């Protein structure tokens, strides 16, 4: 009986411990410039680390236009161009913002809309983004098998006056594995 309990406990630990370890292992996503012609050069990485209430995003990016940029998780793991309204568009194969609850609303991080709404990415005058971002209410699993997208413009976390915060075209993308 004691042997049976000990074996059951050992088997349970063998299943639970690796699952927990895999869950907490950080994800590093290589980000590349994107155009309607395809995926271009690497501009650095974004490391995603799981915390108690969400994740920490640690960008190490260069060669981006200075200022604020819309930053989102997109639903498909691709940065390839695809057709949108009959026109080849940068990183369109990544699909729409990640929205597993089907809210169809753009309300910003933790705002009850798309789960893919991330904080604005702020790029320095030197074209670098290195500021850590804390995002509550998401886990590493929300990033796996998705694309991270940086847009040309800022993000007002609203669908007015322009859809999806007005971020505009997709300028950089990376696939989270």
Structure description:
- By secondary structure, the protein is mainly beta.
- The chain contains 1 helix and 11 strands.
- The chain has one helix at 2-24, and strands at 27-35, 38-50, 54-61, 67-69, 71-74, 82-84, 87-89, 121-123, 133-136, 146-151, 170-176.
- The strands form 3 sheets. A 7-stranded antiparallel sheet has the order 5-10-11-1-2-3-9, with no helix packed on it.
- Strand 1 (27-35) and strand 2 form a beta hairpin.
- It is globular, with a radius of gyration of 19 Å.
Written as H for each helix and E for each strand, in order along the chain, the element string is HEEEEEEEEEEE
Query: What is the global morphology?
Result: globular
The CATH architecture can be named as Sandwich
* β-strand amount: 35-45%
Rg on CA atoms, Å: 19 Å
Which sequence of strands runs across the widest sheet? Answer: 5-10-11-1-2-3-9
Could you please say which CATH topology applies here? Answer: Immunoglobulin-like
What's the helix count?
1
Q: Could you tell me the mean pLDDT?
A: 86
**How many beta-strand segments?**
11
Termini separation comes to 43 Å
Find the CATH superfamily: Superoxide dismutase, copper/zinc binding domain
What's this entry about, in short?
13% of the residues lie in helices and 36% in strands. The radius of gyration is 19 Å and the shape is globular.
Topology overview:
Layout: H1 2-24, E1 27-35, E2 38-50, E3 54-61, E4 67-69, E5 71-74, E6 82-84, E7 87-89, E8 121-123, E9 133-136, E10 146-151, E11 170-176
Antiparallel strand pairs: 1-2, 1-11, 2-3, 3-9, 4-8, 5-10, 6-7, 10-11
